[in-house]
Amino acid sequence: MALNDVSLDVKAGELFGLIGPDGAGKSTLMRILMSLILPDSGEVWLDGLDVKSEYKKVRHITGYMPGRFSLYPDLTIEENMQFFATVFGTTVEANYDLVKDIYAQIEPFKKRRAGKLSGGMKQKLALSCAMIHKPKVLILDEPTTGVDAVSRKEFWEMLKRLRNQGITILVSTPYMDEASLCDRIALIQQGEVFSVDTPAQMAAGFPEDLWEITSPVIYKTTPLLEKMPLQMSVNSFGQSLHLVTPKGRVKPEEIRAFLQQNGETDFDVKRIQATIEDVFMHFMLNAKKESV
């Protein structure tokens, strides 16, 4: 995905999230930061280093986890760790304290080949290898994709501990629920960053009214609400619908009356606070309208 006039400033010691769906441009941006691909224009700096002209220094101070598992599957856990430590001129023993919280969970299986590990164990090994040279910056490209819910939770707990040690972390994810775990986030879609803020401020700044509609026949309620005057969008959220209307233009009794007039009898309507997913979907909808 091509990037279009992206401007970001990640603070030292921050856990910063790039939030967006597949194909939004997250991986492209991270590969540029790692000097794996060069930008056509603009400037890219990492910890005061020019990514284009000082790429060797950049790679030395960063730990990188690409989107796909990229360690050596025929090497054991222990051998992968030793290899990556050697590449950066250090040893596992020298920096063991930095990775022990993570590595200790897989160390009992250190003789097992990396290709035979579960998704969660591969994730922990990849992070350990990315950390073994004591980087200042961690760049993690969708590290929890395809990993079970328990491993995802454990992984983010590890990231918080690393952040507390002063390591700057840039992590991308397609999972909106992970956005709230970051200090700040950038929403990215079609190569453009359209909002940067803390998760709480971004959700609090939702510009319209948001309603939750619950009904035992959601599949019938959705097309009805899509025909309601002044509705801006209707999206399914689990067992409920989220309806967006212009700020201050629609009252709850008007929504109830509309549904009753169209044959709905068993439903509930209440105003709710937006989530990051609501914010993202709203921005996406507006972006599509502007591109038409």
What does the secondary structure layout of this molecule look like, with pairings?
Elements: E1 15-19, H1 26-33, E2 45-46, E3 49-50, H2 55-61, E4 62-65, H3 77-87, H4 96-103, H5 119-131, E5 137-141, H6 149-164, E6 168-173, E7 184-189, E8 192-197, H7 199-204, E9 209-214, H8 218-225, E10 233-237, E11 240-245, H9 252-261, E12 268-271, H10 276-291
Parallel strand pairs: 1-6, 1-7, 4-5, 5-6
Antiparallel strand pairs: 2-3, 7-8, 9-11, 9-12, 10-11
Helix pairs in contact: 3-5, 4-5
Descriptive overview:
The protein is of the alpha/beta class. It folds into two domains: 15-197, P-loop containing nucleotide triphosphate hydrolases (Rossmann fold), CATH 3.40.50.300; 207-272, Alpha-Beta Plaits. It is built from ten helices and twelve strands. The chain has helices spanning 26-33, 55-61, 77-87, 96-103, 119-131, 149-164, 199-204, 218-225, 252-261, 276-291, and strands spanning 15-19, 45-46, 49-50, 62-65, 137-141, 168-173, 184-189, 192-197, 209-214, 233-237, 240-245, 268-271. Helix 6 (149-164) links the parallel strand 5 (137-141) and strand 6 (168-173). The longest helix has 16 residues, at 149-164. The protein is elongated and about 70 Å long. It starts with 14 loop residues before the first strand and ends with a helix.
